[in-house]
Amino acid sequence: MRAQPTASHFIDGAYVEDTAGAVIECVYAATGAVIARLHEATPALIDAALASAARAQADWAALAPVERGRVLHRAASLIRVRNRELSELETLDTGKPLQETLVADASSGADALEYFAGFAPTVTGQTIALGGDDFVYTLREPLGVCVGIGAWNYPTQIACWKAAPALAFGNAMVFKPSEVTPLCALKIAEIFIEAGAPPGLFNVVQGRGAVGAALVTDPRTDKVSLTGSVPTGRKVYAAAADGIRHVTMELGGKSPIVIFDDANLDDAVGAAMLGNFYSTGQICSNGTRVFVQKGIKARFLQRLRERTEAIVIGDPLEEATQMGPMVSADQLDKVTAYIAIGQSEGATLITGGTRLDQPGNYLRPTVFADVTDTMTIAREEIFGPVMAVLEFETEKEAIARANDTEFGLAAGVFTADLARAHRVVRRFQAGTCWINTYNLTPVQAPFGGSKLSGVGRENGHAALEHYTQVKSVYVGSGPVDAPY
Ligand code: NDP
Q1: Ligand 1 center to residue 152 CA distance, Å?
Q2: Residue whose CA lies nearest to ligand 1 atom number 44
Q3: pTM above 0.90?
């Protein structure tokens, strides 16, 4: 099986190769086979990408927003028409099952492009009365050249969620995918050109952290949007600070789901499974600390175990498969190490915990019960299909324990008592919360974290704040009153 792209990079409207760059092997997670060989961007290519973005941005920003929107709409339509092809590529890039990628990746990217295409022409400024004839008006202006750096779990969606608002509001972008999943963003770059975007408006350069670091610190870069882990976020945030660049940081989490005795049992079980096993557990907002009230816990665990053991795990290209392999052997090793730590620290393994006896990075969906707040598996982001179930008795206790984490990406509550649901979410220290559902992230809703989980928001109207800047214009209407 091969998925070799035309070339490693997409710069100034065309595929570009430079074999002087270190090799990146793209490995299919389901078999371990190398399906593509790419090269890291050399300094000359990084320079070319930034230069072309800067060139394209000025003319693009001068277009009427509705014209920019038209290009984004066309790109969204092309993505929808090619959904199957793009979904298969996403599956090859990440190992996520086709059953998911057909509905959650390219289509989510298209949603973002459509949303921001429609949003762009609605952006207006303010007029601010000052008394008398003078007044101030404000203009929303693009930031300039934005650098997007992606994680490996949602390569198409991350590229689109960053590009859509950036481009809609008049910016250009240089995007660096994770070295683990280099394929999908190239297709999005191709599609933008086909949709009528000017060359250079959206460039893709491949590379490891050093390429990302070179992009972040370049004087032509005005904004950096990273999706990644907290340690990388710290480095990128600090590097961007040197040039006082705008940043959006979408980082990791250790999010709680609080399930009260009166919750609908099957809904709560289903949501906890979605929030731990979808995308083989490799989702930043996963609810990996599942707090279950004492009265429902035994029934919850029994139903959870039955449904978890029925998950169809296997070949991700089979549409009946519900769970694929982990993205890489490294990630599999990291997650299995956490499972061993969970057992050694005294958590009870309810199901899973073992690899499948076949090639590929397969791990059975894993549930631990009797987890305590201080255990490593309840404190650190695992980023794999490992659920920790913790017991609680009172609402006050659940809120305090849910918030007892350095992360603040997401949180969920399940209860039939809606007054309690709203009370609890108001007290959650998290950027995105769900009531009686989990992990739904429509593009209309702002998404992002508090505490160590990040700064800024993607999607929704909130994205406007992060891809534009405000210019105030004071209009003087009378004589200038100078005292000298
Ligand atoms: P990493 O933090 O390892 O990498 C993220 C990206 O940053 C990669 O493209 C990486 O390149 C790049 N990078 C690494 N070092 C630097 C540097 N010094 N300067 C610039 N760029 C750099 O994350 P993962 O790819 O392992 O993704 C998993 C993490 O992402 C998890 O913590 C998860 O929670 C988080 N995440 C957050 C989401 C959110 O929206 N909040 C959504 C999805 C994931 P390379 O990989 O090539 O080394």
Answers
A1: 7
A2: 284
A3: yes
